[in-house]
Design brief:
A hairpin with a 3-residue loop joins strand 3 and strand 4 (43-48). The chain starts with 14 loop residues before the first strand and ends with a strand. It is mainly beta. It is globular. The protein has one helix spanning 109-122; strands at 15-17, 21-27, 30-39, 43-48, 59-66, 71-85, 98-104, 123-125.
């Protein structure tokens, strides 16, 4: 049996992205692009390139974009709840991408339903 703190705390199914989905994150006066790794209506996992600015440990706003750069969902608010190097043992010599865990905040019922539909369209359940 695993210790209680090692157990998964998610209450919803997480969808790992099978199709490209991006997050355009508003940072200061510009945007940073990140790959969405997984998604559900409670939160998202992102990979942000190492050369990009670190995300602040506060609430951020971002848009979800398709591979064709079409807006899928706009102005989502989320709190950064987790961060680490995506591959701390990378061999490419550059800064490794960073993995971020986000928890959505202040979502309406419609936004939650839309996130569920987007997760099912672009991802596969884990």
């Amino acid at each position: 049996m695993f210790p209680a703190q090692a157990m998964e705390k998610r209450s919803l199914v997480r969808y790992r992205m099978k199709d490209a989905l991006f997050a355009a994150i508003q940072v200061e006066n510009s945007y940073s692009m990140a790959n969405v790794v997984d998604l559900n209506s409670n939160g998202a996992g992102l990979h942000l390139a190492g050369k990009e600015k670190n995300l602040p440990e506060e609430v951020i706003m971002f848009d979800l974009l398709s591979q064709e750069k079409r807006i899928v969902l706009r102005s989502l608010l989320a709190r950064v709840v987790y961060t680490r190097a995506a591959n701390p043992h990378g061999n490419d010599g550059g800064d490794p991408p960073k993995r971020y865990g986000l928890q959505f905040v202040n979502l309406s019922a419609l936004e939650k339903r839309m996130l569920d539909l987007v997760a099912k369209k672009y991802g596969l359940p884990e």
